[in-house]
Design brief:
The structure holds two protein chains of two kinds. In chain A, the strands form three sheets. In chain A, strands 6-7-8-3-9-10 form a six-stranded mixed β-sheet, sandwiched between helices. The relative contact order of chain A is 0.11. Chain A is elongated. Chain A is 37% helix and 23% strand. In chain B, strands 2-1-3-4 form a four-stranded mixed β-sheet, sandwiched between helices. In chain B, α3 links the parallel β1 and β2. The radius of gyration of chain B is 54 Å and the shape is rod-shaped. The chains are: A alpha/beta, B mainly alpha.
């Protein structure tokens, strides 16, 4: 983590005053000095609570956007403004649709993605997850609707794109560049100064665990390291929203855990994370909210618990006995949706504990040995399966 | 303050763009140079090309041309001709018959087949036949030209020899005639004198009077007198018989004399006639001699009117002098502009198209698109990367060029550089357009070579543009390779300034503008393929 200095209005003025002399006489050297410091300050300011200092009034929140740079130069008018607060973490997706020719991939999707949360998008292959992510990041232009960040349409404001970071399963970096060169290159594409990158690089590489491999050629990295480098490239410009398209795809269990830990760390830095995955367990474990995408539509949206609750409030019971005479054991009990499996039966009951007790006592009486008896709430996989099944119907 | 701020913002933004731009450039160069094979090609490629081309074309001659020959019997003239052909450039192979010779030509064992007539000699009515393979379009004219030069050189030598003999004879004749002119004049004078003498004789003869009668002697009177004396004196006549006999004899002799005079007169008359005839003959002879004299004078005058008195002039009455408009003398000089444009075209097209398609196929391409960096900046950085590499290669080629051509190249370095820059820009943008248009590296390489080959085939480098149909020639004149090569030749060989380069330069600029726009939209479209 970067250690930011404490800020005061006077302190800010003091930091910037030496650069007054560059106004009217700007060259590459002075630019680097000026912007290097301003970038550092941008990070610094973005970490401050909004009730202390308004980012709108403080002129250093973005380097590229004209209005923001204009604001930057008004540093002598810095004042506190509690009423107006910029929100670069909340994304509003308004009735977005996307068609490729006659193929409608996304159909009228609307979402509000709250800041600082992890949103998981799940869906079967071809459901439109990646297309939706690419629209959020401004790569695809929606056929209808809009994606807003801080109430600005990301399509028409290129500078706003610097608030997004995008990591994918495809390792979007150059194999012939080493780790540091890759990260620095993408930093330059975001218009960041060397000073800022120097300040940020170590922390990002430490965060993704690639600090010691910074001089290693990307082609020579292991699969897990490549995935982490991809995430590092998406983090170097310190985005407010990090989008990860199937970040754990093709990784073994340990590497998957590593990446999930990394996502948690990123989220802890206050960044909004939007991710997709086929592995519903990890989505359930890591995401605050989940959107189930079916045929280009959000079939269901909410926290995993909410989704499961909406699916059913019953307990799921898994029973496996030696005799296999389940109907006798469950006779008279209020159970639903009993399904026979190879290794027993699964059924649902509103009062799970009561049902388990009765099954135990009956088996004792009937001298039927219980091989396994599990009581649990239904998993997200089941919820997902049921919703996708419903929508398909 | 606000105005000042805007100005500063503008500057800051442009500096920010420059910084990003250099980042892109650095990345592109690293990616190219980190591949060892690419780096080797970039650094050594142009050196190898220029070395090979310089070694191959630094001459104006052709080598190793094989001439197949056949003759029933080789005359000394034929042998002499073959000896001339066999020097340095040509290798002469003798065949047993004509068919074998032509067959070898078809099999590419010889480049030309020469069939000599039996006992080729000066004045032979039969032709010396040459068979050539027209399918070797670019070689056949060189061979024909080269052999024709050799044969006509020998032919000219023989003509010169014959003309020399002719001139010598003519000179001798002239001298002889000059000598005979005085003889004829002397004969004429003699004739004249003869005629005069004839006239004199004739006059003299005419003056001879041989008119004579017996009565002129008066013997009759003497006889009569004597008779009268005798009768008067009554002399005895017999006493005067002697006198009478003498008188009778005198009369008889007088009559004989008269007869002789008469016959002499006849002879004189005949002589006069003869003299008249002889005079006429002398006169006729004089006329003949006059004719001979005027003929000799006329022949002399005619001989004097022969303007050319040297065999060389008669053999080659028109002196052919082909003067090059540029001073260089080897193929390399003339090829250098073509070589430069060729390298710009192929390396520019290939390098830029591959750079673009590799970038397109790279996973990082997507990440580039989601950054706030504009497409224009990416295009410019790709362009500049290619331009740097291409200019680096051209710098090597020009350094070698300056070493070879010295001042002739260094004096036109600046205008050449401007044109090289324009051509590089054109072909780089064309290559980038191809790179954005096609989806795989293989198709890009194929398309690049196809387009490059089309430009090359319709450029006059392989076949003269003048051999193409008019409609295609008109299109080929807009070929950027043709335009570039034409301008560069004007600059390098004839020292033309930019003001004299004409509309071709504007065409290049228009091409560049069109390609820049096409590349921009092609990049936009390439997003769909991600």
């Amino acid at each position: 983590m970067i250690k930011y200095p404490e800020i005061t209005k006077e302190g800010l003025k003091n930091v910037l005053s030496p650069y007054k002399k560059y106004i009217g006489k700007v060259n590459l050297g002075s630019y680097k000095k000026y912007f290097g410091n301003l970038n550092s300050y941008k990070i610094y300011l973005s970490k401050l609570p909004f009730n202390k200092l308004s980012l709108d009034k403080i002129p250093f929140k973005s380097l590229i956007h004209k209005e923001e740079v204009t604001e930057k130069l008004k540093f002598q008018d810095i004042s506190l403004n509690k009423n107006k607060q910029a929100d670069f973490s909340t994304i509003k997706i308004n009735s977005v649709s996307k068609s490729f020719g006659k193929n409608n991939v996304i159909n009228n999707v609307s979402l509000n993605i709250p800041k600082g949360k992890i949103l998981g998008l799940v869906g079967v292959s071809g459901s439109g997850k990646t297309t939706l992510l690419k629209m959020i990041v401004g790569f695809y232009k929606p056929t209808n609707g809009s994606v807003l960040l801080d109430n600005k349409n990301i399509l028409y404001s290129k500078p706003i794109r610097r608030h997004f970071g995008f990591g994918s399963q495809e390792n979007c970096f150059y194999g012939k560049l080493n780790v540091e060169e890759n990260v620095r290159y993408f930093a330059e594409l975001y218009g960041l100064s060397d000073e800022f990158v120097d300040l940020r690089l170590d922390s990002v590489l430490n965060l993704v665990g690639l600090y010691s491999a910074r001089k290693t050629l990307a082609d020579n990295l292991s699969t897990g390291m490549k995935r982490r480098l991809d995430i590092a490239c998406s983090l170097i410009h310190d985005p407010n929203v990090v989008i990860l398209d199937e970040p754990t795809e093709d990784l073994d269990l340990n590497l998957r855990e590593e990446i999930l830990d990394l996502i948690r760390k990123i989220n802890k830095e206050g960044k909004t994370v939007i991710m997709t995955s086929h592995l519903l367990e990890e989505i359930e474990n890591i995401c605050d909210n989940v959107g189930i995408l079916v045929n280009g539509k959000i079939a269901k949206y909410g926290s995993p618990d909410q989704l499961k609750k909406e699916y059913t409030s019953d307990y799921e019971i898994h029973l496996h006995t030696v005799s296999g005479k389940y109907k006798q054991l469950l006779k008279g009990l209020k159970v639903k949706n009993m399904k026979e499996k190879e290794n027993g039966v699964i059924f649902y009951a509103a009062d799970g504990e009561k049902a388990v007790n009765k099954i135990t006592s009956r088996s004792r009486k009937k001298r039927d040995k219980i091989l396994s008896l599990k009581l649990s709430k239904p998993s997200l996989s089941e919820v997902f399966a049921s919703y996708t099944k419903d929508v398909k119907k | 303050m606000l105005k000042n701020n805007k100005r500063v913002i503008k500057k800051l933004r442009s500096v920010a763009l420059i910084s990003t731009f250099f980042g892109l450039l650095k990345k592109n160069l690293k990616l190219i140079l980190r591949s060892r094979s690419s780096a080797m090609i970039i650094l050594l490629g142009p050196l190898i090309i220029i070395f090979l081309v310089a070694a191959a074309f630094n001459t104006s001659s052709i080598f190793d041309i094989k001439i197949g020959t056949y003759a029933k019997s080789y005359s000394p003239l034929a042998e002499n001709l073959l000896k001339e052909l066999g020097d340095k450039q040509f290798q002469v192979i003798k065949f047993d018959n004509k068919d074998n010779c032509i067959s070898s030509l078809k099999n590419n064992e010889v480049h030309v087949c020469a069939i000599f007539p039996d006992n080729l000699n000066i004045g032979s009515s039969e032709n010396l036949e040459f068979f050539v393979d027209n399918s070797k379009i670019n070689l056949v004219w060189v061979i024909i030209d080269s052999i024709s030069t050799k044969v006509s050189s020998k032919s000219s030598e023989l003509t010169q020899q014959l003309a020399g003999d002719l001139l010598n004879t003519l000179t001798k004749t002239e001298n002889n005639l000059n000598q005979k002119v005085s003889t004829v004049a002397s004969i004429q004078n003699t004739n004249q004198e003869l005629q005069n003498k004839f006239n004199l004789i004739s006059t003299s003869i005419d003056g001879i009077d041989l008119s004579f009668t017996v009565s002129q002697i008066g013997v009759d009177k003497i006889s009569n007198k004597l008779d009268s004396v005798i009768s008067s004196n009554k002399y005895n006549k017999s006493a005067f018989s002697d006198v009478d006999l003498a008188i009778t004899n005198s009369i008889k002799n007088a009559k004989d004399l008269q007869k002789k005079f008469n016959s002499t007169n006849e002879v004189i008359k005949d002589l006069n006639l003869f003299l008249g005839d002889a005079s006429k003959l002398v006169s006729t002879s004089s006329n003949g001699i006059n004719d001979i004299q005027s003929t000799i004078n006329s022949v002399n005058a005619d001989i004097k009117t022969v303007k050319s008195t040297s065999a060389e002039t008669i053999a080659s009455p028109i002196k052919l002098s082909i003067n090059p408009i540029s001073v260089e003398s080897t193929h390399l000089n003339f090829l250098f502009p073509t070589l430069v444009v060729l390298i710009i075209m192929f390396i520019g097209l290939l390098l830029s198209s591959i750079l673009v398609v590799r970038e397109k196929l790279s996973n990082a391409y997507f990440r580039n698109f989601i950054t706030p960096t504009s497409d224009v900046l990416f295009i410019l950085s790709d362009y500049l990367t290619n331009l740097i590499i291409l200019l680096f290669q051209l710098m090597i080629i020009f350094s070698v060029g300056i070493y070879y051509f010295k001042d002739s190249l260094s004096s036109v370095l600046f205008p050449s550089f401007i044109l090289v820059f324009l051509l590089s820009t054109l072909f780089i943008f064309l290559g980038m357009f191809i790179g954005y248009l096609f989806k795989t590296e293989e198709t890009v390489v194929l398309a690049t070579f196809s387009i490059g080959s089309i430009f090359l085939f319709f450029s006059g480098t392989i076949l003269p543009l003048e051999t193409l149909p008019d409609s295609i020639k008109k299109i080929a004149n807009f070929n950027p390779f043709v335009l570039g090569e034409g301008i560069l030749k004007k600059i390098m060989l004839f020292n033309f300034g930019f003001d004299k380069l004409g509309i071709a330069l504007y065409y290049l600029l228009i091409y560049i503008l069109i390609l820049v726009v096409l590349v921009y939209f092609a990049r936009k479209l390439s997003k769909r393929a991600i």
